[in-house]
Model the fold of this input.
Amino acid sequence: MADEFILETHGLTKEFAGFLAVRDVNLKIRRGSIHALIGPNGAGKTTCFNLLTKFLQPTAGRIVYNGKDITSMAPADVARLGLVRSFQISAVFPHLTALENVRVALQRQHGDSFDFWRSKSVLDRFNPRARELLDDVGLSEFADTQAVEMPYGRKRALEIATTLALDPEMMLLDEPMAGMGHEDIDKIAALIKRISAKYTILMVEHNLNVVANLSDVITVLTRGKVLAEGVYADLTKDERVKEAYLGAGHG
Amino acid sequence: MSVITDNSASASSGRGVRDEMVAFVIMAALLATVPFTGIYPFFVMQALCFALFACAFNLLIGYGGLLSFGHAMFLGTAGYFTAHALKVWGVSPELGIVIGTAGACALSVVTGWISIRRQGIYFAMITLALSQLVFFVYLQTPFTHGEDGIQGIPQGMLFGLFDLSKPTILYYVILVAFLLAFLLIFRTINSPFGEVLKAIRENEPRAVSLGYKADQYKLMAFILSGTLSGLAGSLKVFVAQNASLTDVHWTMSGEIVLMALIGGLGTVFGPVVGAFIIVAMQQYLAGFGQWVTVIQGAIFVICVLTFRRGIVGEIAALFKRSL
Amino acid sequence: MQALYAQLLVGLINGSFYALLSLGLAVIFGMLNIINFAHGALYMMGAFCAYFLLNIFGLNYWYALIIAPIVVGIFGMVLERTLLKQLAGLDHLYGLLLTFGIALIIQGVFQNYFGSSGLPYAIPPQLQGGMNLGFMFLPVYRGWVVVFSLVVCIATWYLIERTRLGAYLRAATENPNLVRAFGINVPRMITLTYGLGIGLAALAGVLSAPINQVRPLMGADLIIVVFAVVVIGGMGSIMGSIITGFALGVIEGLTKYFYPEASNTVVFVLMVLVLLVKPTGLTGRAT
Amino acid sequence: MNKKISALMLGTALALAVGTGAFAGDKVVKIGVLNDMSGLYADLAGPGSVIAAHMAIEDSGLTKKGWTIDVVSADHQNKPDVGVNIARQWIDVDKVDVLADVPTSSVALAVSNLVKEKNSIMLNSGAGSSDLTNKSCTPNTIHWTYDTYTLAHGTGTALTKSGGNTWFFLTADYAFGAALERDTTAAVEAAGGKVVGAVKHPLNTADFSSFLLQAQASKAKVIGLANAGGDTVNAIKQAAEFGITTGGQKLASLLMFISDVHALGLQTAKGLNLTETFYWDLNDGTRAWSKRFQDRMKNHAMPTMVQAGVYSSLLHYFKALDQLGENPHDGAKMVAKMKTMPTDDPIFGKGSIEPNGRVIHPAYLFEVKSPAESKGPWDYYKLVATIPANEAFTPLDKSTCPLLKK
Amino acid sequence: MVDVKTAPNASAASGTAKAAPGAALLEIRDLQAWYGESHVLHGINFDVRTGEVVTLLGRNGAGKTSTLKSIMGMIAKRTGSVRFDGQELIKMHSDKIARLGIAICPEERGIFSSLNVHENLMLPPTVRSGGLSVEQIFDLFPNLKERLSSSQGTKLSGGEQQMLAIARILRTGARFLMLDEPTEGLAPVIIQQIGRTIQRLKSEGFTILLVEQNFRFASTVADRFFIVEHGKVIDGFANSELQANMEKLHTYLGV
Done:
């Protein structure tokens, strides 16, 4: 368990009908770090992400999590190992209240989720912990609001609270800032920074400012391949990265 | 993942559950007075069996988001098993019900395991095809007596105490069984399991990413629904005193969809209302021959185009209550 | 041996109907995302149309072969324009429920007026009689059904896979919004596609009339077998629908010879097996 | 249309029905004609049986004597569960005294159970299964017209004796088909023939090709059609298409009605042997009655033996009522009374009702005329042989009816 | 290159994108649009003049693609005004709009996998005269000709697919082209080729509305830029003012 790297990929490749979306990607995510995966649109970030959480099955390559080969596991099983993801488009249960959203996650660990003969009031024992988690992400006043009625930025926060409820070892965040205004971005960035004390985080992000401030290590993808890896300061000096990410000019 | 109804999407808060309990007590009281009203009890008993069947069906579509077009196979299987056990083996009524319901349960495990592999339209087509397979099997196996069906089934003494050949006693036995099953369904919807099921229906990828194996929950819902449909089929044997191919035919599967749809998919009481409406319609309009089929088809069309929440769903929406 | 060939022929005939119907279902599903439960009822209307043409207008089988698909196809297009169109944006299952309701209405109306037993429709004089092929006795009409449906299937395949109109259709199946943004009237195409699918069903109905009698419920049970065919083949490809249709007919024929008791169920059993091995169907794409 | 309205009103009365208990002794009678109104037996029973019932009421003369007689009718769709449901409601709510016709043996057997339980009456004309007066006999059922024994011993024996000594059956997969196959097998074997195989087909089959191919492959000399109505018609037509009859095999339509011959046309049906207990052109009595019947039919069809049986059975019932002077609303009592009286009407001639409920009268073996022989519409049969009453039905000493063991 | 002297300042607040001399081919005023219940455009205002290349810049989810789709009529629920060549498009269906001479090359190219390369190329119908002939197109994209017989459009490389996506709308006779991120995920050498193509189209008189994230690339072809954020156009400037606006760009685009 004391491996230096919590998640590794070896030669990860995904082909869609003749198109190589991800090719031969080797990642090593250091335990306890915030690792960012960046790249221009169409670079294969989200595909890569879906491969890691097993929502897609790789065409070739291996994924090792905590020393265990998870390449052919089902997505729910991966989640049960403590590798939990978020989604690019905010993923909440729209017609459950914020509290119930978090409770669904808490409930999973306690094994009574097949009990169809018991009243759901047995779930009330999770309420204190759920409120705690909502407090953590600043959603106390939304506890009894249906998720569908919450503002966009708050939904992202709720999603993170739900993920935290599983007490994962590692979180994968898919563009947590997508579609947010500046104010929300700062709040979520602060939240990510805070939770990173306890969890390893791998995030896909488009917003370089956020990445610059948050991440320990950055991997740059272009056209499905790893172009470069390092800290932000180094990468900004890398001509290849500039060209790939900021665009190639001519003349 | 396709969610066909938004009725049940409105979470039943504490008040919702209270409303539903009040409605339940009213329903139970009304039904309990039937034998004193001069209403033909046979009609109400039949409607109760279909109401239970529709509620069980609704559990799957309304809360699991899965439209089964083959639910008649559970009704019919339980009917045949119970009928055979009563008539040929001469078992007691309670054991007959257990045998029939267990048969439907076993069938739902197998068919659920197969059909749960696909969703949406494919799920509907697969369940329909499976029920047709079951239909042909029953058409050919000797114990069902093919087109003749099993006839003249003895009703017997329930627990050795209640003479089920007395219409009033039979009525109350059916009523109690219906109410208990109804409560079980109601509890299932409002159980820890029901919560997960709702979460999966709302956002399956998210539920999976939280570590829920969605298929297992859907299968569980399928089995519960199939088993309770079986209970309805077993009870029906005591009312109709026969078991026949009609109950396994796809038209029966279509009828149950209609009952749930007209009452309100994903509402607690909708299927009961729907079942009474359709059974009454078939009874009173029988003289119109096949026009009944036409009317049923028209109701389907109207419900789908303009009335998707069903009667109870519309009423609930009007009063902003969940029923 | 003779019986085996004969049963294979019967299988091929059933296969012709499976192929024509599942082809229509696949074409409609591609464009409208609707599983057309009314397909069986419209197949029946095709047969009735032939019956009316003969008994009211005195137009024989050969006219029916052309007129019935057009008339029923137009009826289908009216259905699409007035009813199905309103389902845009709703869950696909509503399409299934709506077309189921339509099927009940159509079948009910015909049952009211014509009962549930069959009305006779004679084999056209040109196709009466049979040939003794030595290894089997071939009724001419049944041979004609197999050959003609094969030709229609191939022609439909050619239309969709090899012509410009077909290219519109395939493209619109993938991305209707973009095709419309290229200046093509996609709603009209959808209507025509539904008409085409229904026309194929009606054609199958005409072909079937002399064999199966003209009965209000002739399509009701058939459509369920065709659903199983569609699940087995997947709705991904036109050729796939055709081949699985014919192949399952033949398998059914073989079963009738070797183990007649299972002939009603063999298609459904195959469906179960395919689902266990390859849930998306033999030619299907993941949905 | 009238029928529909009355059925609707009847339906609405349903909910209001109250437990007034059985009237004892009055002059009110309600007849329920329960049969196939829209399916494959609609032509041989269907609305024609309702007309026959009305004719029986008129001819009984009871209305002139102060009786109130109502007729209701319903479609049982050939489904036992539907039939039992309707019958139960008729007896419980609508106080129907007599269920008439009830073709389709599976429905008849199911209704017979109910009728016994409710102490009502079934006067069966349409169903064929000889079980109704054998192992399934009840004190509340009388079986008129014909049964599978009649058919087997008419057509089956005659064909076997004339050289058709190997048989293959195409059997409708329900009670009637099974009974007909069983009884015919017995008759064939008794006459020295052999049954080489059988295949069951579902009720209401359109395409018989694969069943016919199995029959063809069996090389049997006779293919026995143990089915009825539309099924028989389809099978005969398709047998021609597959060259079965030209290949030397003979078709035996074990149960065939004049309505079927009409549907087939003489060109296809010519030469077929069939057994019936009634034909419109038998004598002056049948001709007169049939003419009246024909005038009332929308399509001017001649009566089938089933429709004739409905008339005859109800007429006999009314005679019994007339003798009693009032309706006791007691099924077993009425049936017992009817059994004591000999039957006599212009249709079936003189006969009797056996203790097991079987009505005994002669049967006839006919051959279908060729188009050249036919002198006009509905002139379809020539009489080959008359089977005397005592040979046409199961001898009483061979009946397995439990009622006889007393 | 057109020399843009006056820098038009598109101001969302006032709703007046200042029109410089030269006829505005496309005028957009207070364009709002919804995907179902979700409000994606909150009032877009800008103009495109005949013969120029205009680029919309903005972060993911800012509303650039939605703007193109709204112009094209591909989003059903929309309000405001879109005038093209004097005609109001806001109530038109997309097939009608296309027949006025507007063509779109969508994001991720929209190559149909069930069509072969030739069918993909020939798919859009001719809407008016003046389209490029197939020969002219092969002249523009020489490598397309070799791949014409390829069985499946999506078997082409990303660059070839992009060429095909542009090529097929040149055939139709549309003179107003909307290109949605044509450089996405492509190699630098291909990006250069696309840049040259756009310049050539411009010189042939096509008017082009471009959506880009790669503003280095955009700066090589565009006359003017508009910046989209939260479903509004919040700023606009001429290409010549790009350097002066670099700071702002970094804030808005987060790069």
Observations:
- Chain D has 14 helices and 15 strands.
